[in-house]
Amino acid sequence: MAEERENLTYERFGTAVRELARQVLDEYQPDVILSIARGGLLIGGALGYAMDIKNVSVINVEFYTGVNERLEQPVMLPPTPKAVDLTGMKVLIADDVADTGETLRLVQEFCAATVVESRTAVIYKKPHSVIEPDFVWKETDQWINFPWSVLPPVTSDVEKP
C-alpha cells in the first residue's frame, strides 16, 4: 500500500500563504523576510507580496538529499548573507516545512548575534520538529508533495560538450 501524503496544490499554496501572512501580521511586523532556499524561496517571496514587504533575502541551506533522506546535520551553502546586513532588524525566517526543525534552528542561530528579533514561519510543521515555529499554517506527519517539487527536474535535449 502506498504511503499517505499531504498534497499541496498551487491553489492551496495561495490560500496557505495568505492565512500565514495574516497570522504573522496579527502579532509581528518584520523588517525583512529571510527565505531558506530552496523550499522557502517561494514561501518567502509570496509572504513578501502578501505582507507588502519588499525586503526579502535568501539563505541557502542543504539538508534533504531525497525523499525522507537527509544529511546528518544541515549545512549552510555559500554565499551566505553578511550578518551585518541584518543588524538591528526584525527578521521573519520563512521555510516550507519544519520537519526536524534543524534547518530553522541553524538559521536562527546564524541570525541571533545581529538581529533584534527573529521569528519563524512555515507552511507545514511535523510533530517531531525540535523547534516550535512561531507561525504555522498546518501540522502534518505525512510526507508533503509540494507543487514545485513533485515532478522530476526538466532536462535539456541539447547535448552537453
Written overview of the protein:
By secondary structure, the chain is α/β, with parallel strands linked by helices. It has a single domain (about 5-145), classed as Rossmann fold (3-Layer(aba) Sandwich). Helix content is about 25%, strand content about 35%. The chain contains 3 helices and 8 strands. It has helices at about 10-25, 40-50, 100-110; strands at about 5, 30-35, 55-65, 70-75, 90-100, 115-125, 135-140, 145. Strands 4-3-2-5-6-7 form a 6-stranded mixed sheet. A two-stranded parallel ribbon has the order 1-8. Strand 5, helix 3 and strand 6 form a beta-alpha-beta unit. Helix 1 (about 10-25) packs across helix 2. It is globular and about 50 Å long. It starts with a strand and ends in a 16-residue tail after the last strand.
The oligomeric status of these chains comes to single chain
Total individual domains: 1
Overall 3D form: globular
Note the run of SSEs as H and E: EHEHEEEHEEE
Protein name: Phosphoribosyltransferase
GO molecular function: glycosyltransferase activity
Organism: Corynebacterium frankenforstense DSM 45800
Keywords: Glycosyltransferase, Transferase
